[in-house]
Amino acid sequence: SAASDVYKRQLTLSGASSLTSIGDRAFATQSSIAANSNNMYDFAASTLLATIGANAFENSDGAIVLTPAPALTTIGANAFFHFTGTLNIDNAPELTSIGANAFNRDSDDLDTAAATGSVVDISAASNLETIGAGAFGSFTGVVHVKTTAANIAIDDKAFMMVGGSGAGVGSAASTVDLAAGLTTVGDYAFYRFPGTLTITAGAALTSVGSFAFSGTDHDVDSQIDLSAATLLATVGVHAFDGFLGVLTVVATTNWQE
């Protein structure tokens, strides 16, 4: 019947104070056919939540509130892949790993995949070590990352085109602050990243991938200091092509073309 064409389900979750883990694909594909889903996932009371599994909210919509998240350590691969609602994550000081494509939108229809008001603020996660390939690729909200971990790996396309092809509304407010523990920056890692980068690399940094910081979307206040990266051996093609911020580099004998 015609009524079935506009079927709409609504899922509400809140008050789960004993929740410690959300499993793989736990809430995947919980999207309504009709526009403007009312799905609501409120994890404000879930202060014991430590793990969000792979694909947990893939292709779902609605609203997710995960703040505070004092016990959260791991966000799995594709956890919020193409989640098309509003996502708010804040105050996750124990977070150490974000899997590949965890917040990736990867959609040609950025209006449908928009996340107006979405904020992922993990600037309190000072021990964050792994940000997987495509983790925030085309994410259309605001991202804040700050880590001083001893070993920080930024995989390929990790922050590529945050905000989508149009550098989405509000995405220019995004910030990434990385310290001396940075070990590798993958290909296209910050390609056309629209926000502010503050990177102070040390001797741990060994490679910067191709097109890693290229594009003309970076904030002019961005600063990348590689002067202490004495073991930097490889800088890929077009690595800083079009970068608009301040770049400090001291070439070493380790460099390879």
Task: Outline the structure in words.
It is a single chain. The termini are far apart. The chain is 0% helix and 23% strand. The radius of gyration is 19 Å and the shape is elongated. It is an all-beta fold. It has no helices and 19 strands.
List the helices and strands and how they pair.
Layout: E1 12-13, E2 21-22, E3 40-42, E4 51-52, E5 63-66, E6 74-75, E7 86-90, E8 97-98, E9 119-122, E10 130-131, E11 142-147, E12 152-154, E13 175-178, E14 182-185, E15 196-200, E16 207-208, E17 223-225, E18 234-235, E19 246-248
Parallel strand pairs: 1-3, 2-4, 3-5, 4-6, 5-7, 6-8, 7-9, 8-10, 9-11, 10-12, 11-13, 12-14, 13-15, 14-16, 15-17, 16-18, 17-19
What is the terminal-to-terminal distance?
A: 65 Å
The DSSP helix count reads: 0
Mean pLDDT: 86
Task: Give the spatial strand order of the biggest sheet.
Answer: 1-3-5-7-9-11-13-15-17-19
| Unreliable spans | 1-8, 107-115
Given the C-alpha coordinates, what overall shape results? elongated
Overview features:
mainly beta; 23% strand; disordered N terminus; single chain; 257 residues; ten-stranded parallel sheet; nine-stranded parallel sheet
Short description:
The protein has no helices and 19 strands. Helix content is 0%, strand content 23%.
